[in-house]
Amino acid sequence: MSEKTTKELEKLREHIDSVDQQLLHLLRKRLDLVAQVGGVKHAAGVPIYAPQREASMLAKRREEAAKMNVSPQLIEDILRRLMRESYLNEKDVGFKQVKTDLGHVVIVGGQGKLGGLFAQMLSLSGYQVKSLDKDDWQQAEAIFDGAGMVIVTVPISITCELIRDKLTSLPSSCILADLTSIKEKPLDAMLSSHRGPVVGLHPMFGPDVGSLAKQVVVVCHGRGREQYEWLLEQIGIWGARLVEADAQQHDKAMQLVQAMRHFSSFVYGLNLYREAADIDNLLQFSSPIYRLELAMVGRLFAQSPELYADIIFAQQESLTAIGDYLDNYAQALELLKRGDRQGFIREFEAVAAWFGDFAPQFQRESRAMLQSVNDMKTG
Ligand SMILES: C=C(O[C@@H]1C=C(C(=O)O)C=C[C@H]1O)C(=O)O
Questions:
Q1: Is the pLDDT score of 76 beyond 90?
Q2: Buried-most residue among 2, 25, 313, 375 (CB within 10 A)?
Q3: Could you tell me what percent of the chain has a pLDDT over 70?
Q4: Which residue pairs from 304-311 have beta carbons closer than 8 angstroms and sit at least 24 positions apart in sequence?
Q5: Mean pLDDT, the chain, as a whole number?
């Protein structure tokens, strides 16, 4: 590079540094304003997450961006990232407490990750929370005494047994809830062990979410809804969206959404391991989509094998869903073995037609993800 070029670049880069510093100051200012909004909302008991405000704000900024010859998608990406920060900061002020005369909450399995998250959210909302874990059963009576709600969040394999053995003498005013990722059997167990209000919940997220804003919690009603309605409102205040479901339908969906999916990720990892694939090497040749896929598979093996065994082994019926997948794999492999390119294309088109408008929608969504995977690359 010539000296002139170096000088020119240096000067421009100094300007860029200064603009970035101004951005930083603006960010600080925005964070402070959002914190003030958080304070006002907290006092009024309003959830921080305000989708309508977000939609109208984004529409206006996009319009203004276009007029300034800035890409509307750029401002939308930046604002969405900032809004995520807004939800995370909400934990600093806490949440409105919907039910003020509940008595304390007992979380059976409160030391587990999901139990811990719910304990934290409830505490931030002003509830007194006690945890009951496997070594605490001797003190159970004292822990349960005066509880207004008991939430069960223990491994799926022991959930029903625990409910049937240990939760048979709660007072009928006490709410009994669970967070298990299957719903029909735990709900039956709760309804038969307890006379009072019962509700089944399935948080559709892992314990590592920073905030519940926009996350989904599935609700399967048991009995006495009017007595636990406040809990649903409370979860809404945390920002989550509640989706009501029939327990049986929910469990059927989980055979595909969880069992089959996690199982195929497990086999994908197993296959890489048996092939002794060199991950470093694969990453060097990876396209963003491959990296994203590897991230999805690899993250499984950073977590507890018990958790995934629990999810995959939870329902006998998942075996059918996984077996069907294996059959389809074998049939598709036959196309390949026969060199039946036309057959492959026919099947492809049939699936594409079945996906319908979802296919282009998923393409758009994944494009944004792939771009951020690429952004994260260094060097
Ligand atoms: C700050 C607010 O709360 C949330 C955060 C927003 C933001 O960061 O701009 C916008 C809407 C809300 O989801 C607000 O309602 O204005």
A1: yes
A2: 313
A3: 100
A4: 306/155, 307/155, 308/262, 308/266, 310/155, 310/156, 310/157, 311/156, 311/181, 311/258, 311/259, 311/262
A5: 94
pLDDT at site 88: 85
Q: How far is the CA of 241 from the centre of ligand 1 (A)?
A: 17
- 229 & 328 share domain: no
17-42 core/surface letters (b: 16 or more CB in 10 A; e: else):
eeeeeeeeeeeeeeeeebeebbeebb
C-alpha 84 – ligand 1 centre gap (Å): 9
Report if residue 189 sits inside a domain.
Answer: yes
Claim to verify: residue 302 and residue 319 sit in the same structural domain: yes
Residue 312 sits in which domain range? 250-375
The model carries a pTM of 0.89
Pair (179, 255) in one structural domain:
no
Which of residues 245, 270, 285 is at a domain's end?
Answer: 245
d(CA 205, ligand 1 centre) in Å = 22
Minimum-distance ligand 1 atom for the alpha carbon of 49: 13
What are 326-342's pLDDT values in tens digits? 999 999 999 999 999 99
Ligand 1: residue whose CA is nearest its atom 15: 50
Q: 51 alpha carbon to ligand 1 midpoint, in Å? A: 8
User: In total, how many domains does the chain have?
Assistant: 3
- Ligand 1: residues with CB < 6 A are 34, 37, 48-50, 53-54, 82-83, 86
ipTM of the complex: 0.95
Domain end among 196, 230, 245: 245
Q: How many A from CA of 372 to the centre of ligand 1?
A: 23
Q: 7 phi and psi, to 5 degrees? A: -60, -50
- Cα 112 to Cα 114: distance, rounded to the nearest angstrom: 6
- Given ligand 1 and candidates 32, 34, 36, which is best to mutate, with the most ligand atoms within 8 Å of its CB? 34
